[in-house]
Amino acid sequence: MKSVFLKNISAEIQLLNDGKPLEAIDSFYSDDIIMYDNDQVFADGLTESRSKQEPFIKAAKSISGNIVDLVIDEVNEVAIFLNKSQFINSAGKVFQINGLCWQQWKEGKVSEERYYTGELMKTKLIEFYN
Q1: What is the pLDDT of residue 20?
Q2: Domain ranges (residues) in the chain
């Protein structure tokens, strides 16, 4: 039987791959989540997290989710994956996302998320694979 963590991470990844990040946030982020962007606090709590992300997500004409290289540590309830999604804005411009996402889960919800891009993402990937 799958644990709640495994069921929920699978469902979250499916929502992200379906281009539904707001639904993933609403379903799987804890009320007291702390989110980091390149090790700087991005949002403290679900309300702030959603309010900061919603304008960008809603401005997208379409979102093509592409979550790859999922690594799961079931014992510690940690999920790590690459976000290679893309979105098209209202002007028709395509934006490619390229980020590393590390999530700590607790009681079936994401309690901490660390998102890395650019050089820091490369550094974290090297650390992970060494």
Answers
A1: 97
A2: 4-129
Total length of the chain:
130
pLDDT in tens, 2-16: 899 999 999 999 999
Label residue 115 by pLDDT band (50, 70, 90): very high
Pick the CATH number of 4-129 from 3.30.2320.30, 3.40.50.1820, 3.90.20.10, 3.10.450.50: 3.10.450.50
Average pLDDT, the chain: 96
C-alpha dist (Å) from residue 67 to 27, 29, 31, 47: 17, 17, 24, 24
